[in-house]
Amino acid sequence: MKAVVFEKVGTPSDVLQVQEVPMPEPATGEVRVKMLSSPINPADMLFISGKYRIKPQFPQITGLEGVGIIDTVLEGSQYSINTLVAFRHKGLWADYAIVPEQKLISLPAGYPIEKAAQLSLNPTTAYALLEEASLKRGEWLLINAGNSGVSRIIIQLAKLREIKTIVVTRNEKEAQGLNILGATEVLTSQQSGLAEKIMEITDNAGLACVLDAVGGDLLSELLHAMAPFGKIISYGLLDKANVSYHNSTVIFKNLTITGFGIDAWLTKKGEEVHGIYRELAAIVANPDFKMPVAAVYPMVDFRDAFTYMENNFNSGKVLITMNGAGNG
Question: Does 284 fall in a domain?
Fold first, then answer.
């Protein structure tokens, strides 16, 4: 079969190659999946460069999220051949992939493939962050890195729950279209007096929660706009600078600052995750729920896909397709 393989860490254009590799066979607790599509995520770039928490084992097939159709199961499997499934696992940019059963999300036949390809990471992360925020209807939630894929999904899920959102982006260009998705207010981090503006918007109630993908000086300022007993949930580190605050800022308002990782959250949920996946898949499948795809490339044209993504950042996901899916 064909696969996109790398044998050393580096940039995608330098180290990735399409190769013929042996067809994989599943072991107990695994299935073989005929791959259909996979998004290019920031995690893929980190994985290829050797900077991700999961390390490559060379020669390594790249790709960490995707959708496909179960092709082979072993005796005793709870899954059936020809089931459409989404998943996160390594080694997915290939005609076929081996995936552990516990990582599979079963989907109905006819589910939108472009949404299924993205289902396992960003929507699941967005759903989990809102669950951890545990906000009531009408409370104020702030989302920074507001134009990211995760943030765009959080905005839509929060609107469904009638949670009011302030979305912070880097500039006006990134802010475009976020109100249409359901953001209550959109601000830019370049504005002066950001904390004061937030307090004005919230009628001095402050923020019940900040979902923070940035850190650094931005989060340092947002801490001054928190409501009593507010939560700060950090799940990204776009700014390499440290967050700075005085203990009184946290103590006098009884604030909670916590970190978040999706894999630990899923592990904590145990068997409950199957019901979460069913609920989330139904929400995402609605045609009104937006998960834009900017471009689709067959696997053999992966270099063109990376070039497009570099030149069209945040215009939507770039998908890689396998086995003729989505081509033509």
Answer: no
Q: How far is CA 61 from CA 70, 154, 188, in A?
A: 19, 31, 39
d(CA 55, CA 42): 15
Pairwise CA distance, residues 14 & 16, whole Å? 6
DSSP 145-176: STTSHHHHHHHHHHHHTT-EEEEEESSHHHHT
- What gap in Å lies between CA 320 and CA 59, rounded to an integer? 20
3-class secondary-structure state, position 257: strand
DSSP string covering 198-212: HHHHTTT--EEEEEE
Q: Do the beta carbons of residue 203 and residue 177 sit within 8 Å?
A: no
**32 three-class SS:** strand
H-state helical runs in the chain: 12-15, 42-49, 113-116, 122-133, 149-160, 172-175, 178-181, 194-201, 216-222, 247-251, 262-269, 273-285, 302-311
Q: Is the pLDDT of residue 307 over 60?
A: yes
102 and 152 inside one domain:
no
**Residues 79, 70: contact at Cβ < 8 Å?**
yes
Question: Quick check: is 327 in a domain?
Answer: no
Q: How far is CA 112 from CA 86, 96, 157, 179, 298, in A?
A: 11, 20, 19, 25, 18
For 59, the domain range is 2-118+291-321
Residue whose token pair is 């290019």: 40
Claim to verify: residue 80 and residue 190 sit in the same structural domain: no
d(CA 65, CA 55): 15
Q: Which residues does 296 contact at the CB level (< 8 Å), separation at least 6?
A: 37, 114, 318, 319, 321, 326, 327
Tokens of 93: 């940019």
pLDDT in tens, 189-247: 988 999 999 999 999 999 999 999 999 999 999 999 999 999 999 999 899 999 999 99
**b/e per residue, 293-313, with b = 16+ CB within 10 A?**
beebbbbebbeebbebbeeee
CATH number of the domain that residue 194 is part of: 3.40.50.720
Mean pLDDT of 158-185: 94
